[in-house]
Amino acid sequence: MIREDTLLILGAGASAPYGYPTAFGLRHFIIKKFKNYYLSYCKKDLNLTHEEAKEATSEFDFIIQSFKESETLSFDLFLSRNWKFYEIGKHIIAWCILWFEKMSSFNEDMNNREQD
Questions:
Q1: Which of 4, 21, 72, 104 would suit a FRET pair with 37, their CA atoms being 20 to 30 Å apart?
Q2: pLDDT at 80
């Protein structure tokens, strides 16, 4: 039994069975899906017109393309090497966390409960 205050630090893979991405999965999501999902979010949840939503998502074009071309596997590492993207990158990460939290599974919903 642990008797002292203890902090456990788990890697991203610890939450993968629940539907959260690994670094590679997050890279794929940001490059291939983020902008379209964020566009849909802007239209449905923020009630923006299609044109307003497209304008709101256009700010992500340069960072996503730069991330793709960098071939850096981790978005965190990419941001640490490219401080000019830091603020918008934090926005992308926060939104992705909320998205995956919404889509995540609990133990009873997992395909393989042994992974819990």
A1: 72
A2: 95
* 6 Cβ contact partners less than 8 Å away, ≥ 6 residues apart: none
C-alpha 114/C-alpha 116 separation (Å) is 5
Residues 39-76 have pLDDT tens digits of 999 999 999 999 999 998 999 999 999 999 998 999 99
Q: Do the beta carbons of residue 43 and residue 53 sit within 8 Å? A: yes
Exposed / middle / buried, residue 106 (Cβ in 10 Å: 0-12, 13-18, 19+): exposed
Please report, for the chain, the start and end positions of each structural domain, with discontinuous segments joined by +: 33-104
Q: CA end-to-end span of the chain, whole Å? A: 21
* Residue 20 · residue 11 · CB < 8 Å: no
